[in-house]
Design goal:
Layout lengths: L4 E2 L14 H11 L15 H10 L8 H10 L5 E2 L23 E7 L8 H11 L4 E6 L3 H13 L25 E5 L7 H4 L2 E4 L5 E7 L9 H14 L3 E7 L6 E2 L4 E5 L1 H5 L5 H9 L6 E5 L14 E5 L2 E5 L7 H13 L9 E5 L5 E3 L3 E3 L7 E3 L2 E6 L4 H12 L4 E6 L15 E4 L1
Parallel strand pairs: 1-15, 2-5, 3-4, 4-5, 7-8, 10-11, 13-14, 18-19
Antiparallel strand pairs: 3-20, 6-7, 9-10, 12-13, 15-16, 17-18
Length: 434
């Protein structure tokens, strides 16, 4: 039986929070013992400094600091620098069709967790699972981080026994174990939850790609200006036009089947308190090409309120939901499942509803309720990356995925570290359609 109270690293920059000055003066030095809180403002800028960082935070896989420093000196990693002052061109006022996640993807974006050493292994697992079937775009705070990430990924692939997926190429003398599949963008952001602030990309009337920019400001006590600017900066770099949607909406609260159905949770009304249902639909219809909007409840005592912690679309008519067994949210989960049992999608098809396990909550540091959700998964080009948590429910959840998506490779991703920040695989990734 897992402990009700646990003490795990929190992957949020707590030292940046808008605390009173005396609290901040104490908090940052106290956290410095447990987290690299200076790695963004004072990043390692030489091979020696980066090797020391990797050694200090246990990221060398047994290699000594001197050998790591030598590797960093001898290898160079291509990095694309995104201009922070470049403005994307505006897109026409045509409606934008958002594709389903099971349509062909070109790439998946991740923001590398340089502030959270506990998450490096999880991000590496995601890279290893995605790279055989799609490009991986990693955003970094400074170019030197690309060297460190490359070293980390190469070390994980040092032996065939440690390679979890046979498609992952063996290490050679090349600069990166994944070669051209891996792109590094020097594009500073405030945090790692790229699902929420990353580019929402769909197709315009001419079938060309369009980036939809919403307003990202859900955390008033944290800096978020760089996160809010990320989508437009990325779009300008990729020469993809942008449409603006005047709506406070994060990517984690937006699902689509690509065929006329949008799914959000009622968090959208908390984020936009002046909007009625009719006004919300009007604003969405002004930008997105869809026919039906389904709104689910949001979870209690879960800070994001996002729909990807409640629901996972396996196909246009198959939806995975969490079983209503967790005492705090059993009513909300039951209501969410009932919504899909009585609803149809935009094509008029009844939903096939399959239930995933709902692991029990625990309190991190006795304060934060931690919600572990198997719906927080990513579909990418014939694969599904499913979060697992080192508990018996994992196998039951994977079995449900195999039943719901028999033509896909179901790949577990150990998400025990990231879940303490409120999310898992889906929250840490953002797909770019082909």
């Amino acid at each position: 039986m897992p402990a009700l109270v646990q003490f795990n690293p929190v992957p949020y920059p707590l030292w940046r929070r808008d605390f009173p000055a005396p609290v901040k003066a104490v908090l940052r030095p106290a956290l410095r013992r447990f987290m690299p809180v200076d790695a963004d403002e004072q990043p390692p800028d030489t091979p020696e400094a980066m090797a020391a960082y990797l050694a200090r935070w246990g990221l060398l896989h047994g290699r000594d600091e001197g050998a790591a420093c030598d590797w960093l000196r001898q290898h160079s990693t291509p990095v694309e620098t995104v201009r922070l002052d470049a403005a994307p061109r505006p897109a026409p006022d045509d409606l934008v069709r958002l594709p389903a996640q099971w349509e062909r993807l070109e790439a998946v974006i991740l923001a590398w967790p340089v502030l959270y050493p506990a998450l490096w292994a999880q991000h590496a697992q995601m890279v290893e699972a995605i790279a055989p079937v799609a490009d991986v775009v990693i955003t970094i705070l400074t170019p030197m981080w690309a060297q460190a990430v490359n070293l980390f990924l190469n070390q994980r692939q040092d032996s065939l026994a440690n390679r979890p997926y046979p498609e992952a190429p063996p290490v050679s003398k090349s600069q990166s174990v994944y070669g051209e599949r891996l792109r590094f963008l020097h594009l500073p952001t405030d945090d790692i939850w790229v699902r929420d602030y990353g580019p929402i990309v769909g197709y315009g009337a001419d079938s060309g790609r369009v980036c939809v920019k919403t307003v990202y400001d859900p955390l008033p006590r944290y800096p978020q200006q760089r996160d809010d600017a990320m989508a437009e900066r990325w779009a300008a770099h990729e020469t993809i036009p942008v449409r603006h949607l005047d709506l406070h909406l994060e990517g984690g609260n937006l699902w689509t089947d690509g065929a006329g159905t949008l799914i959000l949770s009622e968090q959208v009304f908390y984020s936009n308190p002046s909007l009625s249902r009719a006004a919300l639909e009007a604003r969405l219809h002004a930008v997105f090409d869809f026919q039906k909007l389904i709104i689910t409840p949001r979870l209690k005592r879960e800070e994001t309120g996002h729909v990807d912690l409640l629901v996972k679309l396996a196909s246009a008519d198959t939806v995975l939901v969490s079983t209503p067994t967790v005492w705090l949210n059993s009513d909300r989960l039951r209501t969410a499942a009932d919504v899909f049992r009585r609803e149809t999608n935009a094509a008029g098809q009844l939903y096939r509803v399959l239930e995933l396990p709902s692991p029990p909550l625990y309190l991190n540091w006795g304060v934060y309720p931690i919600w572990r959700s198997y719906t927080n998964a990513l579909t990418v080009n014939g694969r599904v990356l499913v979060p697992v948590f080192g508990i018996p429910d994992d196998e039951r959840a994977l079995a449900v995925y195999r039943q719901a998506m028999p033509d896909y490779d179901i790949i577990p991703i150990d998400s025990r570290a990231s879940v303490n920040g409120g999310g898992a695989v889906h929250c840490l990734t953002h797909e770019i359609p082909a």
